[in-house]
Design a protein that fits this description.
heterodimer; A: mainly alpha; two-stranded antiparallel sheet; 14 helices; 6 strands; B: mainly alpha; 2 strands
Chain lengths: 445, 341
């Protein structure tokens, strides 16, 4: 393997791991902020116990999200120095803003949140949780603005051998950026909601802390239902955007070879990139792809892969398969959330549903990672779509050094990932601190 | 002053802020096996920096981000040239963070001893590597006309780089023990103060060695000769150290503040010597990355200046508030809290 391939794998692996930790904090932070607000409003101890229990899982993931995020920022320089030098004028400022606006906010207030329970008013403490939740979501916004620029570069001109900023507003308010942000954070909310519901279901089946976990489940359910609906909606809008800005990616997502109007969507098939065709095509819905890629017009022309020279096509099978499974999972989350909504008042009478919810926990993780694959693999062979190829972006660094760092990342992140999920499992199984202890601790003070 | 020079100074300010703030975290980590005799001691040390290490580390991320934004050429060349050294630093920062987080999640002695060791190794190596990296920047590294490093990790392990590494390690450790003194009482407090006094001597020696080595092994003083006013910067570093010694054990906050001044002054001591270069090439001056050949467009520099001038004062204000709120002397109650380290 050469430096290019290793650098790609390293970036993919480090992003993959980072994204095991971050989505949970994006959604769980908001859920905790809502719970803590309820505590301030009602004064009921149960909400405080909820915040503290879910907070343990939150903090663990927050710390891992922070430490696995730092290598991502520096890898643009270490492994992708030609890219950095070419786009830094546009791209670098977005990362700098992310750090100064969002990272400071979340990282400073998390310290206060953890250590100042008895030193500030409950109201201010709840406000700190909101700052953290908002901070994590703002950081998601900026990093996705940066990524969206790689998908659909705007507001720049090529001058002096590099991309130079012309219109900062265009970069920040680009529709691609807004949609990518919404779709990603809403997907993350689903993940957080399903984790909370799954853990709560496990305890409800064992009749532990019934009130505590029923309430947790219900809060997560509302959140998850809302997020599932909107994720589907923003997903649809993103599809329209991709059709407009990255036609090769859309063609790969659907494994569409021939350019055509009234483009169909084929439910069952398997792509064969070698022969530029698909096998086992079955259940074809005429015009559906054209309808989905536009705003409902079946006569819309959708470009097929054969329209692009082979060196400009993304890997078809991986993009197509990832997209399929992601959409399927998204649909499943929506259905399950609706069923949960119908049964929300008597959850314990539906043990099979509760059991299902435990098994649902890993699926949003899978869906989110697959979404990344669609976004990033589907953009290939470009690092900035239509502007710079990935192979022209890589640094000139010694191959052994990249081998060492790649293997090092895999080993270290593998260890961290295993420990993280083992610890979440332990915290989740142990359940919240007993109610009495909390009260007696309060009396002691 | 032109925009690029303003950004060069801001660049230095961000690095200095990182060294001052995360420097004491790394220092406390480096002192863990020496000052933390019992599990309770070690927990005190962890919880002393507990509320802050994460926010402190963001100064590094911001320094990195600002390098990318304002000087993409420097960002690209510096981090690819120091590939393996930077990867090691990242590894250290990862282990420092997770060691803090994981340690308290298990009760067994072996579990805790493992993460204590990880925290110690990660913190001390991290402090050392930052020194090695910066002193190599001060001296210049073999980058060619394409910004490609003609060397590897071992090119950076040279006498001058190692002097920088040891300087950072001793200085950060002293700085860490001074912050620990702010937050502890009794026996641990005494040990922190005594350690600070010992490390103060080591730091002074290292500063003298570093300045002498700079005169012999680098061209740092060329700028000083043309602009003698710059000598105020190293003088400030020495004055900071002097005041620090006066206040150790008497006024903990002032002693910490004085050592912070020294750390900032030492950062600028090197940067003032290399200006207008940001990454001097030891092969040929024309290969150096400078504030003019590595910078972003005036438009980006202006936008970012606006952002930074608005946001950073707000950040400083709330971080200051956090320090004020949570720098009390630690007691058993703090250790008993649900989410404490």
């Amino acid at each position: 393997m050469d430096v290019l391939m290793l650098s790609r794998l390293q970036f993919a692996a480090t992003t993959f791991f980072h994204f095991l930790f971050v989505p949970l904090t994006l959604g769980l932070g908001i859920l905790m902020a809502v719970m803590e607000t309820q505590y301030v409003r009602t004064g009921q101890a149960i909400y405080k116990r909820m915040v503290k229990f879910w907070g343990k899982i939150f903090l663990l993931n927050f710390a891992l999200g922070v430490v696995t995020g730092i290598p991502l920022e520096f890898q643009f320089g270490t492994n992708w120095s030609r890219y950095s030098e070419f786009v830094g004028d546009v791209f670098g400022s977005i990362l700098a803003i992310e750090a100064s606006v969002a990272f400071f906010l979340e990282s400073t207030f998390i310290g206060i949140w953890i250590f100042a329970w008895d030193r500030i008013s409950p109201r201010f403490h709840a406000a700190c949780m909101w700052f953290i939740a908002i901070g994590t979501n703002i950081s998601a916004f900026w990093i996705l603005v940066a990524n969206a620029w790689m998908q659909n570069p705007v507001g720049y001109t090529v001058r002096n051998g590099r991309a130079e900023l012309v219109d900062f507003g265009a970069v920040v308010t680009s529709q691609s950026a807004i949609l990518e942000f919404m779709h990603t954070v809403l997907g993350s909310y689903i993940l957080a909601a399903f984790l909370v519901m799954g853990i709560s279901a496990w305890h409800l089946l064992r009749k532990n802390e019934v009130e505590f976990f029923t309430k947790s489940f219900q809060y997560a359910l509302i959140f998850g239902l809302f997020a599932s609906v909107l994720t589907a909606g923003t997903g649809h809008l993103s599809g329209i955007k991709v059709h407009e800005t990255q036609p090769a990616k859309l063609a790969a997502m659907e494994a569409l070879w021939e350019t055509t109007d009234y483009a169909p969507m084929t439910l069952i098939m398997w792509p064969d990139p070698e022969n530029e065709t698909n096998h086992w095509e079955f259940l074809e819905i005429p015009g559906l792809l054209s309808i989905l890629a536009s705003e409902g017009d079946p006569s819309t022309v959708v470009r097929g892969l054969k329209d692009f020279p082979p060196e400009d096509r993304p890997p078809v099978t991986l993009t197509w398969l990832s997209f399929r499974i992601m959409v399927g999972l998204g649909t499943l989350f929506l259905i399950v959330s609706v069923i949960g909504w119908i049964w929300r008042r008597n959850l314990r009478n539906h043990p099979r549903f509760l059991k299902l919810m435990i098994w649902m926990i890993p699926l949003p993780y899978l869906a989110l990672e697959l979404g990344w694959i669609v976004t990033e693999v589907g953009r290939q062979p470009w690092i900035v779509y239509g502007l710079m190829r990935t192979r022209d972006a890589v640094s000139t660094v010694p191959l052994p050094d990249v081998w060492v760092s790649f293997v090092g990342f895999i080993l270290v992140y593998g260890l961290l990932g295993i420990l993280d999920f083992a610890l979440i499992y332990r915290i989740a199984k142990r359940g919240p601190e007993p109610a009495q202890e909390l009260e007696s601790a309060a009396v002691e003070k | 002053m032109d925009l690029q020079t303003i950004w060069f100074i801001l660049w230095g300010v961000l690095w200095a802020a990182f060294f001052i703030l995360d420097g004491f975290d790394l220092g406390i980590g480096a002192l863990l096996p020496f000052l933390g005799k019992t599990d309770r001691d070690r927990r005190m040390m962890l919880n002393a920096m507990g509320p802050f290490w994460d926010g402190n580390e963001v100064w590094l991320i911001t320094a990195g981000g600002v390098t990318f934004a304002a000087f993409p050429g420097t960002y690209a060349t510096l981090f690819s040239a120091m590939y393996s050294a930077l990867m090691l630093v990242l590894l250290c920062l990862i282990f420092r963070g997770v060691a803090m987080e994981f340690r308290s999640k298990g009760n067994s002695d072996r579990w805790r001893a493992f993460w204590d060791k990880a925290l110690f190794l990660a913190s001390s190596t991290g402090a050392l590597l930052f020194g090695v990296a910066f002193f190599n920047i001060f001296k210049g590294i073999p980058i060619d006309g394409d910004g490609v490093m003609q060397g590897n990790l071992f090119t950076l392990i040279n006498p001058y780089g190692l002097i920088g590494g040891l300087l950072f390690l001793t200085l950060f450790s002293m700085h860490g023990s001074l912050y620990l003194a702010i937050r502890t009482t009794g026996d641990l407090y005494q040990r922190a103060v005594n350690t600070a006094k010992t490390l103060w001597i080591a730091s002074l020696v290292m500063v003298v060695v570093a300045v002498a080595a700079s005169a012999m092994m680098t061209r740092l003083f060329a700028n000083y000769m043309t602009t003698p006013a710059l000598f105020l910067i190293p003088l400030l570093a020495v004055a900071g150290l002097g005041l620090c010694r006066m206040w150790i054990g008497k006024n903990d906050w002032r002693a910490w503040g004085a050592s912070a001044v020294s750390i900032a002054a030492l950062t600028f001591y090197g940067l003032a010597g290399i200006y207008p270069a940001m990454l001097p090439s030891s092969l040929d001056d024309s290969f150096s990355r400078t504030i003019s050949n590595a910078s972003s467009t005036p438009l980006t520099l202006k936008i970012m200046l606006g952002v930074v001038l608005v946001v950073i004062p707000i950040v400083i204000a709330y971080q200051f508030f956090a320090y004020k709120l949570l720098s009390h002397k630690l007691d058993e109650n703090d250790l008993r809290s649900d989410h404490a380290y």
